[in-house]
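Morning!

This is the sequence you dropped in the shared folder:
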Amino acid sequence: MGDIAERTIRKDDNDCEIVRYTVPGIKDLPVAAKKLIDSGCDGVITLGWVGRTQLDKYSYISSSIGLIMVQILTSKHVMDVTVHEEEAEHPDDLVRIAEDRATKHARNLVRLVRDGGKSLREYAGKGLRQGYENAGELD
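The structure's back. Tokens below.
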């Protein structure tokens, strides 16, 4: 997912500087995101894989809350991209979800950093999804 996100970001903003920071698990993502922002990064995308157990879900919840706190404390966007193993039974489906989600969230991060999200307005209310088919607009 990291390579996919990096390629997408470089394609959408070839002038950007990308700093990669690898951690051992999802609970380490909040401090990594904070360190990256403190070092001058304008935005962060985190990429994680959540297992099927209840303990995995609790770990994800704590990580997600931590990432939200980083956003609040720094006023910088942190795109939390996770794939949950229970989203699909077949590994190929999980790979497709991961690729789609990483790509779309990376594009969104570029837009948020580049123009404060103004270019996202045209997509609001369209029922767009990351990892799945788009839901479409409500009639």
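Headline: The beta strands are 43-50, 77-84.

More detail when I'm at my desk.
O.
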